[in-house]
Amino acid sequence: MAKRIMLPLAGAVLEELKAGDSVLLNGVMYVARDAAHRRIVGALEKNEPLPFDINGQTIYYMGPSPAPPGRVIGSAGPTTSGRMDPYTPQLIARGLKGTVGKGMRSQAVKNAIKKYKAVYLAAVGGTGALISRCIKSSEVIAYEELGAEAVRRIEVEDFPAVVVNDIHGGDLYQEGKTAYRTVGE
Amino acid sequence: MREIDCQKITEAVSTLFQEACVYLPEDVLSAIKRTRENEESPLARDVLDKILENAEIASKEKIPLCQDTGVAVVFLELGQEVHVTGGDLYAAVEEGVRRGYEQGYLRKSMVNQPFSSRKNTTDNTPPVIHTEIVPGDRLKITAMPKGAGAENMTRLAMMLPGSGSRGIIDFVVNAVDEAGGNPCPPLIIGVGVGGTAEQTLLLAKKALLREVGKPNPDAEVEELEKDILKRVNDLGIGPMGYGGRTAALAVHIEVFPAHIGSLPVAVNLQCHSARHKETVL
User: Is A6 exposed, middle or buried (0-12, 13-18, 19+ CB in 10 A)?
Assistant: First the structure.
């Protein structure tokens, strides 16, 4: 059974989450991927204001397809998180609590998750049509010129995700693979 | 000589990409349904259920299966008796991509000068076009929107000629193991063996267009496909890397003769959203 979770993520919730848990996210997430991360971290390094206050927030790695008329957003599934690894530890150090994407994280990201008590969640890649139904509002709040890569604020309802890296050092990708590995040579 | 007008080609390409991005091919759907029966882990089953539900929603609501509607890869098989009229063949294909991505609300993912400005070209052009001249008076067009997640896990090895099937097995299995959940398993694994570096990569990509699980007609190659499939599924990666029995739905190997001093091997991965569509004009 999936646990319903409210965003922003509370400390007590982060304590409870364990690798492999299915969750349904409810509340506000910020959407950013490659180009937006380059700019956000560039702004951080120059002490310039960020497009949103990252403290306590959750970032979803996603670049949607255009919204057809009458829809909030187009297809909206996760992108590969590893490309954001060079930027993530410093964002977590500045208070970012959740990241949502797909695929493996670097050791540096996993260390930051443990040290600063954050969480990495995965959504099912390639299910952007399904996920778009959980997105109730979407607003571009920065870097509009980046098109699909602009920073958005979205409100989600029962957005399905799985805990991959938790504050206790759990790692679903490692544990899942080990549990089912039958390589015998 | 049979004449085919560029306008027809543009329309065909536009329609192919719009449909390919919304409808998952029947063979892919069946393979996913079959593999769901083999999974014990609730998480793995849930992933496969979501993939099937997503395909239903996409086709019903006409929205893309995946937001990454890819680089527009186009394969042309141009009959040598065809005379293309009314313009430039490649410009016609490019216009088809431009229209299809605009009209279908597909994501425009191409950036120019990839090492510096990375500015979006805003219409998903240019496409990547592979043309083959074949006998006959037809033009076969295959549209393959290829997402970056799986494409980024591509591998090429110029192996020692004596490496044999053992070398190929280790190379492919290792590539899939290292990729883990990144390329969105369950995968279709395209493998090219032989030719030159660029030829073997193209073989690997073309192998992805084969009907899912249809074996190579050469018995020895079919054996190798089965062997590699078993081994990659034994890795435990499972759907989306959450752990499980299915890392891949199929392994498709295409072989070409090679130089006495070469054994090129390429791996090109296809995510579970194995989108492609073809038509013959």
Answer: exposed
Is B53 part of any domain?
no
Q: What gap in Å lies between CA B105 and CA B108, rounded to an integer?
A: 9
- Residue B249, chain A, CB below 8 Å: the answer is no
HSE of B250 in the Cβ direction (CA atoms, 13 Å)?
A: 25
Average pLDDT, chain A: 95
| CA dist., res. A102 & res. A83, Å (int) | 11
pLDDT digits (tens, 9 = 90+) for A105-114: 999 999 999 9
B130 domain-assigned: yes
**B84 with B138: CB under 8 angstroms?**
no
Size of interface A-B (CB pairs under 8 A): 172
Q: Are residues B225 and B94 in the same domain?
A: no
Residues in chain B closer than 8 A to A148 (CB atoms): 67, 107-109, 120
Confidence of residue A1 (pLDDT cuts 50, 70, 90): confident
A165 lies within 8 A of chain B by CB: no
Q: Taking the model in full, what pTM does it have? A: 0.96
Residues B78 and B139 in one domain: yes
What's the confidence (pLDDT) of residue B207?
Answer: 98
β-bridge partners, B131: B76
User: What's the domain count of chain B?
Assistant: 2
Q: Largest alpha-carbon pair distance within chain B?
A: 58
In this structure, the answer to whether residues B79 and B134 fall within a common structural domain is: yes
> Are B271 and A125 in contact (CB < 8 Å)?
yes
Could you tell me whether strands B248-255 and B187-193 are parallel, antiparallel, or unpaired per DSSP bridges?
parallel
In this structure, the answer to whether residues B174 and B75 fall within a common structural domain is no
CA distance A149 to chain B (A): 9
| Shortest alpha-carbon distance between residue B20 and chain A (Å) | 14
Chain A residues whose beta carbon lies within 8 Å of the beta carbon of residue B241: 103-104, 173, 176-177
Q: Is B51–A124 a contact, with Cβ atoms under 8 angstroms apart?
A: yes
* Same domain, residue pair B153 and B126: no
Query: For residue B154, what are the domain limits?
Result: 149-274
The encoded tokens of residue A2 equal 């999936």
Of all residues in chain A, the one with the smallest CA distance to B235 is A181
Place of tokens 């032989």: B194
C-alpha–C-alpha distance, residues A72 and A32, integer Å: 17
Which residues of chain A form beta strands (DSSP E)? 3-6, 22-31, 58-60, 98-101, 119-122, 135-142, 151-165
Q: Does B127 share its domain with B254?
A: no
pLDDT at A185: 47
The domain boundary, picked from B89, B122, B146, lies at B146
Provide the ipTM.
0.95
- Tell which CATH classification among 3.30.450.40, 2.30.30.90, 3.20.130.10, 3.40.50.970 matches the domain A3-8+21-164: 3.20.130.10
